[in-house]
Amino acid sequence: MTFIEKLGAAEQQNQSLLCVGLDPDPAKFPLHWRGDASKIFDFCAAIAEATADLVIAFKPQIAYFAAHRAEDQLERLMAHLRQVAPQVPVILDAKRGDIGNTAEQYAIEAFERYGADAVTLSPFMGWDSVQPYLRYHGKGAFLLCRTSNPGGDDLQNQRLADLPGQPALFEHIAALAQGPWNQNGQLGLVVGATRPSEIERVRALAPTLPLLIPGVGAQGGDAAATVRAGWRGNTQSTQAPIVVNSSRAIIYADSGPGFAAAARAEALKTRALLHACRVLTD
Fold first, then answer.
1. Is residue 77 included in any domain, yes or no?
2. Has residue 281 been placed in a domain?
3. pLDDT averaged over the chain?
4. DSSP bridge partners of 142
5. For residues 137 and 48, what is the distance between their CA atoms, to the nearest angstrom?
6. Is 95 a catalytic site residue?
7. Which domain, by its residues, includes 14?
8. N or C: which end of the chain has fewer CB within 10 A?
9. What confidence tier does 238 reach under pLDDT thresholds 50, 70, 90?
10. What's phi and psi for 191, nearest 5 deg?
11. pTM over 0.85
12. In this model, does residue 85 exceed pLDDT 60?
């Protein structure tokens, strides 16, 4: 299956819009592993096993592994996810953004070394920074579009005076991703949950693309507003999934030996909330 097909299948099988972000910080691990970077794989594997039937995707953040020289643990984790949750696509959150031969090497890293189903990218160096990833048949790429951090306004909301209608930069990225850049049909967009009105604007410009929406949970994004802004379909399916990510609120739900069970309980609660907020449309 292509990434988009796998995403849709996971949504149906697990009845979920929830993506669990795997951001392993040893300083926040359960007390019996606190501060031990050698337990990154064990921590993430336990969370994944506890939530594999509840999610539309997993999203490991590469920096949390690289900072602790744990890339080998990330490789083990990616293989483990394919074994214990083969129905769930894995989005490698790398936010790469370079051109030419360097972009080709980053694509090899994401899709060949780690075996990711999709990767997050920064599109601000233009089309040739995205193209190498699209050469991988069936693999997905989520382009940063309208992020939830305060500094996003510095660039993303600036108007482009040379284009008709003077769209904001994030609007132009959405239109490019929906149109000429989507050459393998596997592009998506990253939009922050803290900006529901702009999720709605991105959805209007990119009606068929999946949206990766971080920021629900510890970052304070409103789940109901997020789903209303991005969901288009019926209670059973959609042609353009929304992938609502929660990381810290789930993976650090408890600091005791029952941390994985606590993560499952939090994931169940979040999945149910997102499911209840789905908007019925024609």
1. yes
2. no
3. 93
4. 120, 188
5. 26
6. yes
7. 3-276
8. C
9. low
10. -135, 135
11. yes
12. yes
